[in-house]
Structure to design on (595 residues):
């Protein structure tokens, strides 16, 4: 019977599209638990009256004008494609993903 | 045996159980903003370009690249929000929506999650119903995956990063007709304010539907999402089908057939929806604030500048055409449906001072020339006839220089060749014939052997004259003045 920590590891791996063996899950589960425990200390901080931050630098309103710039050539864009067919990236058949 | 389901307004009634079913439906619409470049990089937005020719390190998610928001995209999005009376947030931020799919090169889509730029608003439908909007947010489009060529999936990233607004309605839609009317009105507004070209064939407008049914008086049931709806007619047809499918499933009493929360695809050939994948592991997008994009402020002055750029909206125009210009509701609809046509009409009406005539010529003749191989024009602006040209024709008819029938010949020639009205009239010799002896010759010819009509007219049945005017007009090539023809015919008959 897998522990709830192992279940969390398995679920996280699934979301990250990583395949792990039950042995790996069992090995990682206590490490996961320690990491999460460590981050729990953050919830002890009193945030009364503190606005949630949206970034570390306090930047706002970085905008650009709607002016075209040169794109990469097709050959440049496809240079590191795992496989190229004509001018497309070619990937394993994947039907019915998200939109 | 499945039950017969009949419509009673917005209620679906089962003939077998007598159950009155209500529909709960919300629409999600993605509209492409009318910018030159993508949302976060300077690549040009693209349609029909060679595959992967409009990409750069930013929109393909290369390490070290930084997205920067396109100000025009924000302006257009704000204008769309103002046009539907929504609240524009004083500031908003971007979030990463994480998922893996081959058309999304970064493995996340930059979207807005908990701080969308716009909430609320609504659209009033011609039926009097109001569809409220829940929110609108900015997001980037994904690329295009092609599955039907060869053994692999082919990916074109030209579309990745294209600016979109996603609008989500409240669950106010209660019938396929509501959905159709809402989409029509939304599209009109987006085009009017210049926010989007909203061309469904180019994928600039896409709609997903969420729908569930429940017996009157009971709580909402499981909702089903329907995708792959590439026209408003398909949205209405898919909704109709899905409503009936869900009701039949519940009425079967067989729990294994009950609707489950899932995404279904509309098959426009077979006219059915079919299951795409069930959401057994509820999507977990792990949204978090996009660290590469700082929050964006919409200042009161920016907001006012965008408000100042809003044109008169379709609903207001329609009302004004009927109330102030005296057009029929039908004509007003026809003209307002396309902003360029409405603008053309207004100019022609203003120059000629005759709005009704302008409306008639446009809906009967000018619009017919669109999509016509002869003119090769797809929009009214492509036509060689401009509003002042039409106004000139209207005046020629009003002054009696030419008859309306001849006017039709003239406008067709104008639309084909771009020649001015007066020139066509002169070249084709269409000026109305006022010469009495010429008119009399035509009338005498028309009277040959028409003793029955002559007798009727003598009996005081003047209506019978109508049957004679047509042949005279034809003989004259549309050049006879029909008023004079009527007088002459009457005189000749009574004198005979």
């Amino acid at each position: 019977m897998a522990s709830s920590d192992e279940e969390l590891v398995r679920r996280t791996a699934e979301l990250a599209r990583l395949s792990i063996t039950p042995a790996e899950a069992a090995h990682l589960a206590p490490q996961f638990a320690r990491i999460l425990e460590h981050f729990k200390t953050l919830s002890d901080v009193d945030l009364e009256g503190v606005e949630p931050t949206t970034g570390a630098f306090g930047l706002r309103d970085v905008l650009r004008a709607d002016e075209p710039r040169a794109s990469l050539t097709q050959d440049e864009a496809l240079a590191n494609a795992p496989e190229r067919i004509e001018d497309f990236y070619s990937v394993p058949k994947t039907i019915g993903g998200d939109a | 045996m499945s039950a017969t389901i009949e419509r009673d307004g917005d209620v679906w009634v089962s003939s077998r159980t007598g159950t009155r079913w209500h529909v709960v439906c919300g629409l999600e619409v993605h509209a492409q903003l009318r910018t030159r470049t993508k949302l976060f990089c300077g690549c040009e937005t693209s349609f029909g370009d060679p595959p992967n020719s409009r990409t750069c390190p930013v929109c393909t998610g290369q390490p070290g690249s930084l997205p920067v928001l396109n100000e025009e995209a924000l302006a257009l999005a704000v204008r769309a929000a103002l046009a539907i009376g929504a609240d524009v947030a004083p500031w908003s931020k971007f979030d990463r929506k994480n998922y893996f799919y081959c058309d999304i090169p970064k493995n996340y889509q930059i979207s807005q999650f908990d701080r969308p730029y716009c909430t609320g608003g609504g659209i009033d439908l011609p039926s009097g119903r109001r569809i409220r909007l829940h929110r609108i947010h900015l997001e980037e489009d994904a690329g295009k995956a092609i599955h039907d060529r060869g053994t692999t999936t082919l990916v074109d990233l030209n579309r990745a990063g294209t600016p979109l607004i996603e609008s989500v309605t409240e669950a106010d839609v209660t019938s396929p007709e509501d959905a159709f009317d809402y989409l029509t009105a939304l599209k009109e507004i987006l085009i009017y304010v210049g926010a989007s070209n909203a061309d469904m064939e180019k994928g600039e407008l896409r709609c997903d539907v969420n729908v569930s049914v429940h017996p009157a008086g009971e709580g909402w049931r499981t909702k089903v999402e329907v995708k792959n709806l590439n026209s408003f007619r398909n949205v209405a047809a898919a909704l109709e089908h899905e409503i009936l499918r869900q009701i039949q499933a519940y009425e079967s009493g067989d729990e294994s057939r009950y609707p489950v929360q899932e995404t279904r695809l509309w098959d426009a050939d077979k006219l059915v929806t079919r299951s795409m994948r069930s959401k057994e592991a509820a999507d977990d997008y792990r949204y978090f604030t996009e660290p590469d994009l700082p929050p964006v402020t919409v200042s009161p002055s920016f907001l006012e500048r965008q408000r100042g750029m809003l044109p008169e909206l379709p609903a207001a125009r329609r009302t004004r055409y009927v109330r102030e210009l005296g057009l029929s509701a039908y004509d007003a609809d026809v003209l307002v449906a396309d902003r360029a046509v409405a603008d053309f009409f207004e100019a022609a009406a203003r120059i000629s001072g005759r709005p009704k005539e302008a409306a008639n010529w446009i809906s009967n003749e000018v619009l017919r020339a669109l999509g016509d191989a002869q003119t090769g024009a797809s929009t009214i602006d492509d036509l060689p006839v401009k509003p002042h040209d039409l106004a000139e024709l209207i005046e020629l008819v009003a002054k009696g220089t030419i008859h309306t029938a001849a006017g039709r010949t003239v406008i067709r020639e104008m639309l084909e060749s771009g020649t001015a009205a007066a020139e066509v009239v002169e070249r084709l010799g269409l000026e109305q014939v006022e010469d009495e002896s010429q008119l009399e010759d035509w009338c005498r010819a028309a009277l040959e052997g028409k003793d029955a009509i002559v007798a009727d007219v003598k009996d005081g049945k003047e209506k019978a004259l109508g049957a004679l005017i047509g042949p005279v007009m034809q003989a004259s090539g549309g050049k006879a003045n029909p008023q004079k023809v009527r007088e002459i015919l009457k005189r000749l008959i009574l004198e005979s």
About this structure: The CA atoms of residues 131 and 172 of chain B lie 5 Å apart. The radius of gyration of chain B is 30 Å. The first helix of chain B runs from residue 71 to 83.
